[in-house]
Amino acid sequence: LMAERNTPLICELIKRVSQHSDFGIWQRRGSIPKKAVMDLCTPLREIYPGQPGRFYASAILMVLYTYESWLAIQQNLRRRIDGKQRWLDVVKSDRESIELSGSSLDVIKRRAQDILSELNTEQSTQSAPNANLQIWENMSIVY
Questions:
Q1: How many CB atoms lie within 10 A of CB 90?
Q2: pLDDT (tens digit per residue) in 75-102
Q3: Among 98, 6, 86, residue whose Cα is nearest residue 49
């Protein structure tokens, strides 16, 4: 009974889920609603009659488990691809910046280092009076 009727039921149900108009939405969301699979299974009861109710429930759960694991793998792969795409966009923007500026990468790096050292110098001079003030405050607490 399982091999003759239930396996074809599961295969047909998998096929119908993949052809559903909301499949793209489910794919982005990463899960398929159980009610949707149950609704798709209802007309299949007439095509594959005479099975116990637990077989239909088993087919629905099997399809849900199969798709949910597949969708989780797809989402993981999508995140990896998106991360690599962001990295390529950064590299591409660096290349475009070099082309637009008409400078070499070494010139841009040196200028960035100069700006960073200027900012560090400003921060250290601004924090120095605060450090001296802190020392005087600590000394007044001691006395």
A1: 10
A2: 999 999 999 998 888 777 777 777 777 7
A3: 6
